[in-house]
């Protein structure tokens, strides 16, 4: 039984010892390692550390919290020379490792039953209360009695002899003055050791008050004997006893600990004990929330002799800073960095990595880029040393993607380290997917996609259409204009209706275009993707084998999807061809775009995912002081030092949705599908070339050029049309060949016009011809902006080309003009997805001043020789040469003046000058007067006819056929805006309608439909060679007496006026014609002799017969009242003209039919000689069928003067 109890006791003691050892070991590790995060997470079993905020976790292998693999223990495989603690530590570690290895398989207490457990527990309890504690109490009592008896005698003798010999008190020595007596040994029965033993027993049974007294007494004895090692231990235990006393009767004597630490370190030279004392004191201070004092104490013990100890103390000091009431976060991070550095020097790579990771949590995102770079660089190197390659790549990646402020050499070193580590990572899984590369930056939103071939360069006089290219900047206003042009031509093709599924063609997609739908691309036509790169580093980056990354889903001709999906790097060339850029250099801090092409060879759905390339640097550029390059970086002058293969995805965020209430209250983004084109079947492709296309013209100048249309596809095209906002700028000629001249071009000896040689007898007499606007593509209901291109057979076969003449006319306004042409064409075989295609061209024309023409028309007072009814008109044309000879123009010759109208025509020129050659030098003016008559009834067109009468008055020997191309073309283009005016809508109320009809009839009397075309030639000296330029100007006359101009007049801005507020009394103001319009309702003419001789000495009264002709200018019956009672009351008129009297009936009431002429025979009575004005009759008129009377005086603007002579 006793043997069994002895065995049980031995097992219990071994178990207790091992349990206590493990307990102290775990406690030591918690102090040494510190918490893994700033928040002091107590779950120390976790082996996952947060690394640099990279959203991934670093698993620190080999850090279990047990004694067999302590984190501070050096690895057996590490180099012993790296350990600063010497070889003893290595030997101790190896022996400890062997001991633990031998005891690895022993399991204690496996054969114990539950009864054995109860008996052991009962034995321990009885052993403690009946044996151990009474024994300790008895020992303390005996030691106390012995010490009282011994110490009392020795103290009395010592004190007496000391007083006898010294005579005074011996001063105490300071710590620095004491000698090193660490070699002093006391015998076991020495009273000082007995006191220390009793203090230890009291401390063991938690009798801290008595233990403190004993330690304090022993401390004094040790100091008297200068046993500094013993004294330091007594001071240390006295401080601990004072701290552990319940109720804290006395404050914690921190100076005891400071003295003990100084003694251990300076006198005893025992850093292990000093370290133990510092850790113990720091824990006591931390329990009292004195973190600042604890941190200062820990930092004070750091030194250069032991990196491991210094790293441990610095880490603990860092935790003191973070646990303060007001945490000192930056001091925590700084001391963590110091601790990590010392751990690294001590060979503790895992602990160094942990410290740097915890410090990175503080520095991240604070704008301390240099500190972040240093920490990430160290984390990357430590992770690489520990073979944690993914973490190393992530750390180096953060150095490169941040806006680094490092020097170029430093950035080059970081980049080389990253490439080297990255290459090692990629070699571990060569068959895996391509990882993402951090450099260069890609601005995904700035990615542009262009569908089609590149624009051809100009070849001599042959200039290709500008169309759309990636070199053009986006302009929202221009884009809207192109959209409107396309809608206009589509509406014309679809009989005035835009289809519901119409979507404007977009050849270039960018961040401003509408990318909500899948774009359409044509098979065998390239797709160009412009990717915007930016190099944030100060070192150049070299991208090699740069190409697009794509995924393609082919479809068969029926539109069904195939199951096979081709993807990524090695796409089949049969489906999609990929362009590879061998080298693409991006200089330091440079933004550069790369244009990559794909060539689809099959219909289907294409998805462009990103770019793939080799990232490298140029060698011979970077040498870094203090940072050595990793092995494997071979050098070469201006050659690729190292490169890695990777990819970057193009992820474009669509526009934010803001239509519905839900979208406005939340953040939602629409799709952006510019990188997901649908490859459709083959379509025709048109190329347009302009030959001899001018860049500078005179205003109104006519120039002939040629346009070449080429079908470069394998499909025939048809329905070719061109649309422009400026149709008056160009023409392809009339619809019939008769109307189009065959002259090749406008040069020195040939004309762009169709001309006929005339004899001299026809000079100043109009030559009449006619033409219909329908022959020139213009008529009621048509779109003059949409012009069909006269292709032979209306079809352009594959590979075929055709050249067509094109006449150009310089705009009437001076300056630079951008004129947009949009060519529309379709495929002969209708395609379901793409119904049509377009080609854009922008022509830039610079115009300079030439002639300024103004014209007026007025009614002629002459009524003789009229075949038509309604009277004649006089047309006055003023021509001014506004050219200042900047274009080398010598002079202008007016070669012909033509008229075009449905109802009027020029009859002859009434210029009195005999000079038939109308020349105008710079700043000269010329005035022309022409007589216009109504057309004959057989020539007059019906209301809805588009036939115009052309009358040409020539001033030379050649007649320009104004009713043929290009003269008539440009004339009709100038009228296009007039033809597009909406017709007046009928009113709702009958009474109001009748009033409006009356007003309209009166207004028509003052309206005239007469258009003047002035054709001219300009003689230009260029390069010592004289050229003849031709041109024409148009003046559209609408109203009698109102001046019209050939070019739009600049309107001066109105002056600022005060803002007036008023309340309109009656908003419905009745329509009433103006005075000028009423004055043209009835045309009056007085016929009388210019002078009349009368013998006043024979007969005092002189009677002169006068005929008053009244002509109804309207197309309705008019009631006329002629009142002869009107007399001139103006004194000026009386003084100049004198007074006379009308004899006979003083008032006449007449009714004139439509365009009727009536004459009244009047008599004027004069009493003496003089000059008289006969224009005194007042004429009133109103429409016969109208209740509302519009009447006004019909006065002639010119006086009718008669001279009365006496004979």
Low-pLDDT windows of residues: 1-6, 19-93, 153-181, 563-571, 622-638, 743-749, 981-988
Q: Provide the CATH superfamily of the domain at 190-428.
A: Tetratricopeptide repeat domain
Count of extended strands? 49
* CATH fold node name of the domain at 190-428: Serine Threonine Protein Phosphatase 5, Tetratricopeptide repeat
Q: What does this protein structure show overall?
A:
By secondary structure, the chain is α+β, with helices and mostly antiparallel strands. Among the domains are: 190-428, Tetratricopeptide repeat domain (Serine Threonine Protein Phosphatase 5, Tetratricopeptide repeat, Alpha Horseshoe), CATH 1.25.40; 441-452 and 507-556 and 572-618 and 640-680, Immunoglobulin-like, CATH 2.60.40; 686-848, Sandwich (Immunoglobulin-like), CATH 2.60.40.10; 865-937 and 946-977 and 1003-1045, no CATH class; 1075-1206, Immunoglobulins (Immunoglobulin-like, Sandwich), CATH 2.60.40. It is built from 22 helices and 49 strands. The strands form 10 sheets. Strands 5, 17, 19, 21, 23, 26, 31, 33, 35, 37 and 38 form an 11-stranded antiparallel β-sheet that branches. Strands 7, 9, 10, 12, 14, 15 and 16 form a 7-stranded mixed β-sheet that branches. Strands 3, 4, 6, 8, 11 and 13 form a 6-stranded antiparallel β-sheet that branches. Helix 4 (191-204) packs antiparallel against helix 5. It is elongated, with a radius of gyration of 56 Å. The protein starts with a helix and ends with a strand. The relative contact order is 0.05. It holds the Pfam family Ig_TPPC8_C. Residues 471-698 form the TPPC8 first Ig-like domain. Residues 1081-1183 form the TPPC8 C-terminal Ig-like domain. Residues 699-839 form the TPPC8 second Ig-like domain. It comes from Enhydra lutris kenyoni (northern sea otter).
